[in-house]
What we know:
The protein is mainly α. Helix content is 51%, strand content 12%. The chain contains 2 helices and 4 strands. It has helices spanning 42-76, 85-101, and strands at residues 11-13, 20-22, 29-31, 34-36. A hairpin with a 2-residue loop joins strand 3 (29-31) and strand 4. The longest helix has 35 residues, at 42-76. The radius of gyration is 29 Å and the shape is rod-shaped.
Amino acid sequence: MIDQKDQCCVSVWTEGSYCEHQCSRRGVIERDGKRYCKQHDPMRKKAAEDKRKAAWKAASDASQKAYDRRVACEAACEGVATCELVPGLVARLLADKEIRSD
Length: 102
Ligand SMILES: [Zn+2]
């Protein structure tokens, strides 16, 4: 049995119960005078949260970029008949390119 002063200081809920108790793991990391197990280390939790937020932001940015591209493509194709969309768009892009290169 671990001495209570060596235990992780975090209170956890007992599964299937309304009671909480002190985490039974050994506190191996000390932060601000409190001992934490590896799972409840506040710095580890923050790093995991930062990683989740970064992944969410990357996915959100990619989604926004794809949306912006679709909107730009639809605007560029405005007024072009669907049956002539691809050849018409290529011709228009080539014409624009020639105009810009002059
Ligand atoms: Zn713990």
